[in-house]
TrEMBL record:
This is EF-hand calcium binding domain 11. Keywords: Calcium, Metal-binding, Repeat. Gene3D superfamilies: EF-hand. Residues 1-29, 67-102, 103-138 form the EF-hand domain. It comes from Rhinopithecus bieti (Black snub-nosed monkey).
């Protein structure tokens, strides 16, 4: 298990550096200072690091977020039939005709305009992801 491998001194917790190594091992990237600061500030101040239970919760949340992002990417790619990396209004119309054929074209246009945040006539993956996440995260 990654926790044990990163807790080389058998302290029973992961230090800041141990946590960084664990993220690299599990997710293949070095976490940013902001990400590590966020995790470290959320742990119990009476402990010197991240306990196993807290580590498992962090990993579970990261895995769920990764899985969700992959699903969003899959949906975007299904809409982006020409593999351009963005969606046009025509792409939207075509997709909505398949999933909601009775939806008025005016509504599709309104949705497109809402999602195209910079009004450039293209919906990037970032715009698309933002639209799908809108209202999903509660404070």
């Amino acid at each position: 298990m990654v926790f044990k491998a990163c807790d080389e001194d058998h302290k029973g917790y992961l230090s800041r550096e141990d946590f960084k190594i664990a993220v690299v091992m599990l997710f293949g990237y070095k976490p940013s200072k902001i990400e590590v600061d966020s995790v470290m500030s959320s742990i119990n101040p009476n402990t010197s690091g991240i306990l196993l239970e807290g580590f498992l919760n962090i990993v579970r949340k990261k895995k769920e977020a990764q899985r969700y992002r992959n699903e969003v990417r899959h949906i975007f790619t299904a809409f982006d039939t020409y593999y351009r990396g963005f969606l046009t209004l025509e792409d939207f119309k075509k997709a909505f005709r398949q999933v909601a054929p009775k939806l008025p074209e005016r509504t599709v246009l309104e949705v497109f305009r809402e999602v195209d945040r910079d009004s450039d006539g293209h919906v990037s993956f970032r715009d698309f992801e933002y639209a799908l996440n809108y209202g999903q995260k509660e404070a």
